[in-house]
Amino acid sequence: MDYSRTIRAAAAQISPVLFSRDGTTEKVLDAISSAAKDGVELLVFPETFIPYYPYFSFVQPPVLMGKEHMRLYEEAVTVPSPVTDAVGQAARTHSMVIVLGVNERDAGSLYNTQLIFDADGTLLLKRRKITPTYHERMVWGQGDGAGLQVLDTAVGRLGALACWEHYNPLARFALMAQHEQIHCGQFPGSMVGQIFGDQMEVTMRHHALESGCFVVNATGWLSEEQKQQIVTDEKLQKVLSGGCYTAIISPEGVPLCEPITQGEGLAVANLDFALITKRKRMMDSVGHYARPDLLRLLLDQEAWSVLEQSAGQSPVTDAENSPLLTTAPVPMSLTTEAL
Is 227 an active-site residue? Predict the structure, then answer.
C-alpha cells in the first residue's frame, strides 16, 4: 500500500430533484463536472441520493405511505442501467473515483445501496446497507456481508458505510481490518435537528481516530420548498431540518476543511497519506495495538440468495489475509478464546 501520496477529495452536500430519478442524476453529473474543475479525484454523494432519500417514511405512518413508496419504486435505480452507465462514463471522463448512494430496485424489493466507481468508470462494488434503521425497515430490504469490502481504487484503499451502520462496531472493524485508507460515509441529512449533526460529527471523527484513516462524509440537504413537498404539516416539516455534517476528517480526527451544515456545497481537501502512518505509529487498532489472540472477528462475506444451486458457491475473498479478520460462511460474531 502506498502511504507517500496525496489526493484531492470532496464530499457533496446537495439537494435531490424530488420524485425524479433523471433530474437527480443530472445534478450528480453536474456536480462531478464541477468538482473535476477543482482537481477532485474522489467525490462522495449522500445516502440514497438517486432518486432521493425516503423522507416520507420518517413523517408518515405506514398505513399512509403506500403511494409514496410506490413512487419510489418507479423512480428507483436498477444496476446496471442508464443511470449507472452515465455515472461510470462521467467517472471515466474526469478520472474520478465516485461513491454514490442510490435506492436500488431488484425485482420486487428496494435496497439502500452504495455504488463505488473507479476512475476508469468501472463499477467496483454494489453494497447494500446491512440493517435499515427504524422507519427505513418499511422501505428497504437487508444487505449482506458481501459488501463489507475495502477496495483498491485509483485513490487508495477505500471502504464505505451508510448512516447508522457506523453504530455497528463490527461492521466498522471489518473495514478497518482490511486496512482502509479512506472511509466514505453517507447520511440523508435534513433530519432530526442539530443533535443528529452533532452525533454525526462525533461518529465520523471517532472512526477516523480509531481506524487511522481519512473520512469523507456527505449528507443531503432539503430546501424549505422541498420540505413542503414532502409533508404539509408544519410541525413535521421542522423534523426535516438540521442533521447535516458534510466534512473531511484526518486520521488524527481533525477536520481538514470547514464542515458544511447548511445549504448546498462541496467540502474539499487534500489527503496526505503520510498522516495515516503518523497516526498508526502511535495506535494501530488492527496492527500492533490489536490482540487477535484474545479478540477477532468472523465475517461471512457470502452473498445471500434464496436459490442455492448444486453447482457450488463462489469463493469468499479474504482481504489481504489479515490475522484479525477471518472470512468464513458463518454468522458474523465476536469470538473470545481462552489461552
Answer: no
CA 141 to chain CA centroid, nearest Å: 16
The pLDDT of residue 27 is: 98
∠223-130-70 over CA atoms, to 5°?
50
Q: At what angle do helices 21-36 and 82-94 cross, to 10 degrees?
A: 10
The pLDDT score that the predictor gives to residue 222 is 98
Whether 129 sits among the annotated catalytic residues: the reply is yes
Question: What burial class does residue 70 get, using C-beta atoms within 10 Å of its C-beta: 0-12 exposed, 13-18 middle, 19+ buried?
Answer: exposed
Q: Which of 75, 104, 163, 184 is catalytic?
A: 163
Go through the domains of the chain in sequence order and give each one's CATH number. Answer: 6-282 (3.60.110.10), 295-336 (no CATH)
Judge whether 101 and 46 are in contact, CB under 8 Å: yes
* 163 catalytic per annotation: yes
Please give the torsion angle defined by the CA atoms of residues 316, 167, 266 and 48, in that order, rounded to the nearest 10 degrees.
60
Rounded Cα–Cα distance for residues 230 and 145 (Å)? 33
- One of 47, 75, 165, 210 is an active-site residue; which one? 47
- What is the distance between the alpha carbons of residues 14 and 190, in angstroms, rounded to a whole number? 11
Mean pLDDT per 10-residue section of the chain, whose length is 339 residues:
94 98 98 98 98 97 96 98 98 98 98 98 98 96 97 98 98 98 98 96 98 98 97 95 97 98 98 98 97 96 89 53 59 39
Nearest CA among 220, 208, 11, 188 for reference residue 98: 11
- Catalytic residue, candidates 129, 165, 227, 280: 129
Closest CA to 219 of 181, 257, 191: 191
